[in-house]
Amino acid sequence: MAAITYKNASCIYEGSDKLAVDNLNLDIQDGEFIVLVGPSGSGKSTALRMLAGLEDIDEGAIEIGGKDMTGVPSKDRDIAMVFQNYALYPNKTVAENMGFALKLRGVSADERRKKVEAAAKILDLTEFLDRKPAKLSGGQRQRVAMGRAIVREPQVFCMDEPLSNLDAKLRVQTRTQIAALQRRLGTTTVYVTHDQVEAMTMGDRVAVLRFGKLQQFASPNELYDRPANAFVAGFIGSPAMNLVTLPLSADGVKIGDSTLELERDNLTKLNEAGLTEVTFGIRPEQLELTDSGGVEVVVDLVEDLGSEAFVYTHASSGVDLVARCNPRKAPKLADTVRLHRAPEGVVHLFHPQTGERIN
Amino acid sequence: MTTTAERITATPDAAPARKKKSRKFSPWGVVAWLAGLGFFFPVFWMVLTSFKQESDAATNPPKLFFVPTLDQYSAVFNQGIGPAMLNSVFATGMSTILVLLLGVPAAFALSLRPVRKTSDALFFFMSTKMLPVVAAILPLYVIVSNIGLLDNIWALVVLYTSMNLPIAIWMMRSFFLEVPGELLEAASLDGASLWRSVREVILPLVSPGIAATALICVIFAWNEFFLAVNLTAVNAQTMPVYLVGFIAGEGQYWAVLSAAATMAALPVILCGWFAQNKLVRGLSFGAIK
Fold it and tell me: What is the Cα Rg of chain A in Å?
């Protein structure tokens, strides 16, 4: 177990002039569960592979337990990795797969068997220990890959989208199991995913990446409540936050002829920035249906999820808005309804050019 | 109660079931059988003829029922098949071992550890096969003669190695390409050195490919005629050269020629039969997903 530090770590792929990972700085505490999340091409996997020693650290440094890992080969980093496609050794049995690292370290056969059996018990793999990976289902293979990592008791777990090959139900189930297992073992974990739900539910802290650059590194709640820029605001949350660039009026933002009012201090900040328009963000659950006032919109689609419903609408000025409502009182398709900001509703204001948070 | 999961529960998804073989009649099956028999018949006729007396072998229409004899085989042995057979075994075996020793690491490097000039290197290997051997035989003869290896089996070992190496590299490379690169990464994270991960993880996976490549090399080297006939005389002559001696010297003696040809074909058939078990095994199933 160890703390991990990325210090201005950069990686550039051969033949490319763009940095795959651009000056990444992360301070990861001992025992923390960190999720790297971002769209494809954001450099999240590369950042993880740099930690594991599978990609070069071209600039800057990565430290594990205070030791600089630049130039240290993977095999000497004491890291276990779970790959997206599991990368189990097909010619070895489940027990041999899980015990391979111990065997390489010269652990005796007895000791090895004990550890493998203990891990197999946790992961419910005991009856499969003598099977080859080809004879296992997807979920079982995933657990073997997990087992191979935990048997070693490494300093760090690296997980590269370990759930993306599972079906939806199994994925949700395994998600909670991995998080629980990590809490129990207390091993520092870096987990890569493109799925923001995984990021929100599993991580102690989440690092959002885009084009190789860190956008925000914060707890899931902080990411959700105070996204640092418009990209994070749009990426975290499902359905996504309503984000529209709107002209400013004296007391709020204008959607067509209607005005959504803003607080005084927000207006002051916008004034100070000298803006005439602003990228305005509000989460669907903070928009409500109302009888009077607010913005008049036409319903395009109603998504009824049972416990809640999302109403996809457009205003006459062409602005699309999504709002959450009670599924039992949801409007019908093509209905004209009015939306307003919920009494406690938080708005997010971003600079229309840079995308940085203003309020 | 703790919030920690003490046991990760088993999931209901079952291991993949095996597909049942279809036993339905198909007209394509008949076509396949006819084609198969068509290919097999000449070989069958050769083996059959090798057990005949010369008089039975020369009849027209051909005799299907006759008293089998081993006379032709003993004749072949008496005419000195032994040295030719040994030469062929040595040239084939040695060149195949050398090809594998040189070709497997090369193919590994060119597939799992590609560098900037990988495609150029691959093209270079293939380009060595583009010149017809006939065009190279004269300089080859001069070189072999100058270094004193005429009628020496080592000349053939070297030539067969260089003849088969490009094919082996290309073939092995396609097998290595099917090995997921993550396996090497996983092994290296598990703490294995490159040599260890190649030996324990990669080689067992590509062993069917190695067997297939070795078989191809054996077949090509065993049947090679042109270089052998030009660069060897009596001491280093190989089976194909020896067989031709039969045609030239003995004319229309079908039975003894058939016996010699059967003897010449036998080692390759045996190799193929041994390699078969390896060949049919799937390459890397179960590694990923």
Answer: 24
Q: What is the pLDDT of residue B23?
A: 66
Please tell me the distance from the alpha carbon of residue B21 to that of residue B19, in angstroms, as a whole number. Answer: 6
Distances (CA, A) of B267 to B81, B168, B239, B272: 13, 20, 11, 9
**Is residue B15 within 8 angstroms of chain A, CB to CB?**
yes
Is the distance from CB of A34 to CB of A44 less than 8 angstroms? Answer: no
C-beta atoms of A184 and B14 within 8 A: no
More confident residue, B14 or A84: A84
Domains present along chain B, CATH in parentheses: 74-283 (1.10.3720.10)
Interface of A with B in 20-79 (CB under 8 A): 52-54, 73-77, 79
Contact A80 B287 (CB under 8 A): no
Instruction: Check CB contact of A80 with chain B, cutoff 8 Å.
Output: yes
Average pLDDT over every residue of A2-16: 88
Q: How many C-alpha atoms does B78 have within 13 Å on its Cβ side?
A: 7
Q: Which residues in chain B touch residue A135, judged by CB atoms under 8 angstroms apart?
A: 15-16, 286
Label residue B222 exposed, middle or buried (CB < 10 Å: 0-12, 13-18, 19+). buried
Contact check, Cβ <8 Å, A133/B286: yes
For B186, name the nearest residue in chain A, comparing CA atoms only. Answer: A87
Q: How confident is the model at residue B59 (pLDDT cuts 50, 70, 90)?
A: confident
